[in-house]
Amino acid sequence: MEHKELIVIGAGPAGLSAAIEAASRGIQVTVYDENARPGGQLFKQIHKFFGSKEHHAKIRGFKIGDELLKEAHEKGVEVVLNATVMGMFAQKEITVMINDEVHHVKGDAILVATGASENMVNFRGWTLPGVIGAGAAQTMMNLHHIKPGERVLMLGTGNVGLVVSFQLLQAGCEVVALVDAAKNIGGYGVHAAKLARTGIPFYLSHTIKEAEGDDHVTGVTIAEVDDHFQFIEGTEKHFDVDTICVAVGLSPMAQLLKMDGVGMKDTRGGYVPDCDETGATSIPGIFAAGDVTGIEEASSAMIEGRMSGYAIAEYLGYMTKEEKDAKEEELDQSLDALRQGMFAPKNRGKEITKTEEDILISTNLLKHGFVADDEISRFPGFVHKAAIHPVIECTQNIPCNPCQSACHKGCISIGENMTSLPISVKESTCINCGMCVASCPGQAIFLVEEHEDEDYGLITMPYEFLPLPEVGDLGHALGRSGKALCEAEITQVRAPKSYDHTALVTMKVPYHYIDLARFYKKGDE
């Protein structure tokens, strides 16, 4: 039997973060992961993170993964890949298959950071090739550079469904629709809005009735459902597709903990180990962190991992309780900041009708994915100004503030509360640097230059599709709903390294469209 001081199961954001903190205190750490590449979900996440600077805000997931791996290597963490932990038993013992060999390993402490697996729903034809999980589509695109399909229908409008749909567009796929049995879109409004303005429709209170095809998907039929999720006859809608993506939630992979007899509990976040804030379970020396303890964002998983790392250091005698408590308090505040706002765990299942600022939520955003033109003016980021200025269409209380720190001229203010709606400061002077537009993870900031006396205006927007438009191109300006509004001419394209692959495209439109135009499509699209 082999012996390890600390065994970490899972080389994702939680497992690596815990391993780094433990190794920093002198603990010998071995991380086992069943995949051929460490980093967990981070290496599939090409979008920019929300939160604040301490939460890696405006940094893309795969870059965060690179940083964690580099730090783990520097701290001397041993990462064993293609290593599937098959069982966890009494006395902190595990069996792990490494390549084709089974090893019996005993640890002084064990951290389980196995993450979560995708849920699936049953419908007629759901086993046909071409029906895949959204995470599988992400793996194909972002790790293996393979298009999952040409025409795709997405089932699920939580953050995973919204984010992956946008990445499908970036990969060159056509997303024909987003479908959800719920009455409202489940993910961040800014994610939905950047899809809606490309013209993709949302079908709420709908779900899949049948996937069509003999040996692979060739089409799909959806239908509206009633309050009891029963199909309403006569509401069927057909789409020709070759791929159906399913994003209907995740389930914590807590089987190893249950196998070992760890106390479990059934929560809205899944069947999870009953552990404290540091991940300590009912069995001394066994800890859990990340999605295995309940589904949250990767930013939260990294903080939970760090907290577990400190708790393990105390358990193994490398840290005093006072030191651990001080670190835990600091991290707990950081974690609590991410758990605030409309999408906080405490608000799951609740109907939120107003923002923290007592502004009515956009009903159209919840139903159709975009804030209606007659609703946008009630939000504090939407202003008019003679000179160039930022217009911020962030309308939900999301824990995020990189736009405030990106602007060194004080044009944008959120304040101390990270979930407050951003304000476009009227008295400020914008210098058109574009950093706020490039830094916004939700792509919800636009620079508007009004020219009422010349009957035209300039709108600078974030753009993450290839090929980029070129100066002089003529195309169409699209509104928030994705509807073509008018002709538009490209006057400037900026893509410096500091924007981190978010190009800034400026289009010229008639003056009366400056409040409405929010996307550009080339003339032949």
TrEMBL record:
Keyword check for Oxidoreductase: yes
Source domain of life: Bacteria
Pfam name, any one: Pyr_redox_2
GO molecular function terms attached to this record: iron-sulfur cluster binding; metal ion binding; oxidoreductase activity
PROSITE patterns associated with the record: 4FE4S_FER_1, 4FE4S_FER_2
UniProt entry keywords in alphabetical sequence: Iron, Iron-sulfur, Metal-binding, Oxidoreductase
Domain 4Fe-4S ferredoxin-type: 421-450
The keyword Metal-binding belongs to this UniProt entry's keyword annotation: yes
Protein name (Swiss-Prot/TrEMBL): NAD(P)-binding protein
Source taxonomy: Bacteria, Bacillati, Bacillota, Erysipelotrichia, Erysipelotrichales
